[in-house]
Amino acid sequence: MIKSPLFEVCMDLAVEDTTAWSEAIFGSVALGDKRLTRRLIQIGKQLSSTPGGSLSGSCGGQDALIEGSYRFLRNKRVTANQIAEGGYQVTSWLSQSIPTLLAIEDTTTLSYTHQVKESLGDLGGPKEKSNRGFHVHTTMLMDAEQEKTIGLIAQERWCRDIKERGKKNHRRVRLYTEKESYKWEKNTRELENRLGSKMSDVISVCDREADIFEYIQYKLDHAQRFIVRASHNRKLEGSNCYLFQMLPSAVNLGIYTIEVAQKANRKKRQVTLELKTTSVTFSPSERRAKARELKPITLNVVIAKEKNPSESDCLEWILLTTEATTTLECTRKITRYYEMRWRIEDFHKAWKSGVGAEEQRMQSIENLEKMIVILSFVAIRLLQ
């Protein structure tokens, strides 16, 4: 990628100069016209200077700025993906000198009620009062050792067709690549394209939704590293035993104390975890094996379970991983990396509340998507 003169400011993740920050993030976005790129930089500066407000409000009452900003969003030659790609390339470049990277990913929704609502996707609720908006699956990179947010590296946005609601049988016969669950592999493929050989230093960190046989096999087939929280009680190959039933026999390596953050009705507290490990081999179900060429997969497992829980809600993580689990230090590191998965939820909060992604009012779905993409990078800045 072509680096702007101010590109180096991105190495200082706490940069205060919003002009320099916006030039660094958006200065290399390829829009086919330098004037469009300059306008994008200006919009980025405005929004990062006044996070949480509207686009017009960020213009400080200057009519020319307001008109120029909205004209940019209406320009059909500019797409949300073009804007995003420029930002991803910045993240890729910043990641090159970092020894170990965590690719933390998760899915959220952005909900809207204004006039463009009917063009957006189904988010659930009664059909006659269905919530509408985008489903968004985001991957962001973090420095594993410094625990710093580097930036966004992949994001998929889509609108779910309300006509498909309730058609579970239809989903069963769809190809894996046509299902929403393919989003995990799709983002991984985008990471490969943007990071190249640097992928060997990347560990994907995912919640239980990513416990998908096809996704895990893809990662293994491409020698990619991951930590995925187990969701399915899979049958072990060559045995009548299942994953959850064999966990008590895992090797006990020691303890690890973590701090659990406050969330909803849950209080902030310190938790001592007992760490165990084992290795397992799963075979694909017959139905899955027929639909795609799947083979048995062998994984390491870390079981992090609260020791002497004082509350009814006992903390327990069953983590499937490619990482070594032979020592207490190894399992502590894996558990710490999984703890950092919550940073993606911090991003969602910053995106929705911090910079007001759900408060934006646009006249078309295309304009709205461009706006929320710009705001996604502004939200990352709040985390840095």
Describe this structure in words.
The structure is a single chain. The chain is an alpha+beta fold and 384 residues long. It has two domains: 1-78, Serum Albumin, Chain A, Domain 1; 79-383, Transposase Inhibitor Protein From Tn5, Chain A, domain 1. The chain is built from twelve helices and ten strands. The chain starts with 17 loop residues before the first helix and ends with a helix.
SSE order and pairing:
Blueprint: H1 18-26, H2 34-49, H3 63-74, H4 80-95, E1 101-112, E2 121-122, E3 132-143, E4 148-158, H5 168-173, H6 183-195, E5 202-206, H7 213-221, E6 225-229, H8 243-246, E7 251-260, E8 269-282, H9 286-291, E9 297-306, E10 316-321, H10 328-339, H11 343-354, H12 365-383
Helix pairs in contact: 1-2, 2-12, 4-12, 11-12
**N-to-C terminal Cα separation, in Å?**
23 Å
Count of folded domains: 2
Query: Main β-sheet, in a few words?
Result: 10 strands, mixed
- Give the structural class: alpha+beta
What's the level 1 CATH class of the largest domain?
A: Alpha Beta
Low-confidence stretches: 1-7
Q: What integer is the average pLDDT?
A: 90
CATH architecture of the largest domain: Alpha-Beta Complex
SS field, number of helical segments = 12
Strand elements, count: 10
Helix content: 25-40%
In one word, what is the shape? globular
Organism: Legionella pneumophila
Domain Transposase IS4-like: 220-377
Domain Transposase Tn5-like N-terminal: 20-78
InterPro entries: RNaseH-like_sf, TN5-like_N_sf, Tn5_transposase, Tn5p-like, Transposase_11, Transposase_Tn5-like_N
